[in-house]
Amino acid sequence: MATINSMTALLVDQLKDIYDAENRLTKAIPKLARKSANEELRSALEEHLQETEEHVTRLEQAFGMLGQKAKAKACAGMRGIIDEGSEHAGEDYEDDGLRDAMIIGSAQRAEHYEIAAYGTAIAHARLLQQDDVVSLLELTLEEEKAADRKLTDIAESVVNIEAAEGGDHEEENMSRRRPSGRRQTAGRQRATAAASTRRRR
To answer: Which pTM does this prediction carry?
Structure first.
């Protein structure tokens, strides 16, 4: 294992880690997209795949600016995030919306990891006055943040709502199969509580 003996060496080591992470994502994102039932989510993932491929190219340019050959160092963090996402995507779901909600969660874990990694690399490159490297990495960081915001918008406006409604429908179906006099559904309990409050007023 090579000794890291300077801030430049530390920056290069970090870029190797990120380079591996981005390359792993170019293979993982299409799998998540294929599992997605929501068209908006699938489109967002496919769009970010194109950005991710550009991120790989930018990293190669950053290596060149530092006088280094582009080389990956196994990124255990991203490997774990991807493996966990693949495992969850392969589980059985009663409703497609639930799987889509899980896919968004997995994708955002990857985004947050990258946002942290790029933020650190940028701080170190700025300290070294590697302004061209900083500018290049900042472009990618902004795209990672934008992708994360887009996934949040899709989750909050569509996917999570559909997932919740799917779960509610399943709960309603179960309640119909219960004998009368058994416990109320959560929705009926809330309605009863609200009516009781109004009567007390």
So the answer is: 0.80
For the segment 5-44, what is each residue's pLDDT rounded down to a tens digit?
999 999 999 999 999 999 999 999 999 999 999 999 999 9
Predicted pLDDT of residue 155: 96
Residue 73's Cβ-side half-sphere holds a number of Cα atoms within 13 Å equal to 13
d(CA 188, CA 20): 51
Whether pLDDT at 201 is above 50: no
Residue 122 CB: number of other CB atoms within 10 A?
Answer: 20
Q: Is 181 exposed, middle or buried (0-12, 13-18, 19+ CB in 10 A)?
A: exposed
pLDDT over 80 (residue 186)? no
Domains of the chain: 7-177+184-195 (1.20.1260.10)
The rounded distance, in Å, linking the Cα atoms of 118 and 49 is 17
Sign of the alpha-carbon torsion through 10, 53, 42, 94? negative
Q: Are 96 and 37 in contact (CB under 8 A)?
A: yes
Rounded to an integer, what distance in angstroms lies between the CA atom of residue 125 and that of residue 48? 25
